Amino acid sequence: MITSITLFGMTDVGEVRDHNEDDFAICQELGAGDWSFRRGEVVPLTSSGALLLVADGMGGTNAGEVASDLAQRSVRGYFAEAGETPTSAEGREEFLRGAIVHAHQAIVEHQHANLETAGMGTTLAVAWIVDGSVHVAWSGDSRCYILHPDDFDLPFPFTDDHSVVWDLVRQGALTPEEARVHEEGNLITQSLGDPENPPKPSSRSTPLYQGSRVMVCSDGLNGMIPDPQIRQLMAQELEVSDITRQMVQIAKNAGGHDNITCLMAEVVEGPAASDATTTSRAASASGAVAASDPDEASGAAPGPGDVEASSGAPAPEAGSGEPVSASASASAPSRPRRRWTAYFLVALVAAVAGAFLPRFFGASSASPPAESPPPTKEMPKVAPEDAPAPAGDSSRPGAAAIPDTTAAPDTTAVPDTPVSGDSVVLPDTLILPDSLSPRDPLPPPDTVGSPAPAAFSAAAEP
Question: Residue 378: pLDDT above 50?
């Protein structure tokens, strides 16, 4: 059971955009509705848990910042109105997916009432840290990364982008690094706000341990920093506030082509990862991170503490926080391998005999040829000008695009110490009142506000 955590987050307009369409919210205690955090402060994790969410608005002049702001406000309201929340991993994932759909509906309704914002949209990624686990749900290409102190074999990133290039990664046509620098990297396959294409959120859960770190970010961060470098930065022996500031500055130094938002949480007190290392590594060999995708399995790499059911045995509850013993998948008796060897040998002998015996005994002993199938109606031939274009022939309509395999630019070196100077500096205390947005001028030094509504935004990333 996790007993205490520390949280931090910040957003930056970047080096190219003239305004910030990202939005975020952090709640250190959902039960009390405490949407605030203080740099370096260690807070107890209550039974209701803590929440981090990032929304990356789209639409530019059509109010992308309004869509992202409305999304985070809708999720906050969804939790506030829920009363009691589910206690199982499956129930919590379903709850988060419902919160995303609820936010989508709020954005659509706003567009109907405010036609000038038609076409706005946003991505949304939500991480709920509660009991001994983190439950994540997302729509679009905002991401969650998780790093354990013993470097368990979790997917990195923990989420799978809903984007054209990430679909190619999952198909094996691109590497993650090729996808990061691909010219079509900004094309997403789902988001919030499109009435004709409602989101189908994905979700995933995994246990956390003392020293585990959870990061939620917009693509303005991971689009500028390669995943291996993100892993190195997350693993530094620094406070999460310093790492967060450092990542934002590195993304800006790399070009800062988009708005940049980075939130991070660390488990200060919780179950020791070393106690679960042996069993979770054994379990990961036969299991998979608990995941839910309405369309298809994510294909993510196995993770610790999550095992699929085998031999009809029920699977342990994902995200329960309890280490999973390897015996969960090994309890059923294994089949003798000798039986399968014998079957194979018999099949091999029969195949050889069938191939050579007719040569010695004549063709008369062979089986008569099978009757030809009845004639079928011939399909009309495709005229050359209507024939489908071969892959890569971009001069023909409907031609398939060849994945861009442009080599990634050199990665930005990781500074040995936290970046200062040009980096964005936030005061120690960050309160998120309803009346202030990260894009508004900062109030007095003691507090900084978060999300507040204004107008609302569009659905195809520039």
Answer: no
Are the C-beta atoms of 134 and 214 separated by less than 8 Å? Answer: yes
Contact 260, 220 (CB under 8 A): yes
The predicted pLDDT at position 285 comes to: 36
Residue 449 · residue 432 · CB < 8 Å:
yes
- Are 185 and 116 in contact, with CB atoms under 8 Å apart? no
Mean per-residue pLDDT, 287-302: 42
For 155-178, what is each residue's pLDDT tens digit? 999 999 999 999 999 999 999 999
Instruction: Quickly count helices (H) and strands (E) in the chain.
Output: 10, 14
Contacts of 289 (CB under 8 A, 6+ apart): 154, 155, 158, 204, 205, 206, 300, 301, 302, 303, 306, 318
Do residues 126 and 75 lie in contact, with contact meaning Cβ atoms separated by under 8 Å?
yes
Residue 397 — pLDDT band, cuts 50, 70, 90?
very low
Give residue 172's region: left, alpha or beta (phi > 0; psi -120 to 50).
Answer: left
CB 300 within 8 A of CB 288: yes
Contact present, 329 and 306 (Cβ < 8 Å): no
Query: What are residue 202's phi and psi, to 5 degrees?
Result: -100, 160
Distance CA 194, CA 350 (A): 60
Q: In the 8-state DSSP scheme, what is residue 81?
A: H
Give me the sign of the Cα torsion angle 435, 460, 139, 286.
negative
Cα angle, residue 130 at apex, residues 220 and 245 outer, rounded to 5°: 30
Per the CB < 8 A criterion, the answer to whether 180 and 223 are in contact is yes
Whole-number average pLDDT of the chain: 72
- Residue 389, both tokens: 């274009």
Q: Is the bond leading into 418 cis (omega within 30 degrees of zero)?
A: no
Note the maximum CA span of the chain. Answer: 100
pLDDT of residue 348: 63
CA distance 355 to 95: 61
3-state class of 7 per DSSP?
strand
The pTM for the full model equals: 0.64
Amino acid at 286: S
399 vs 194: CA distance, rounded Å? 27
The full DSSP string for 384-406 is GGGSPPPTT-TTSTTPPPPPP-P
Q: Using alpha carbons, select from 65, 70, 2, 77 the residue that is nearest to residue 35.
A: 77
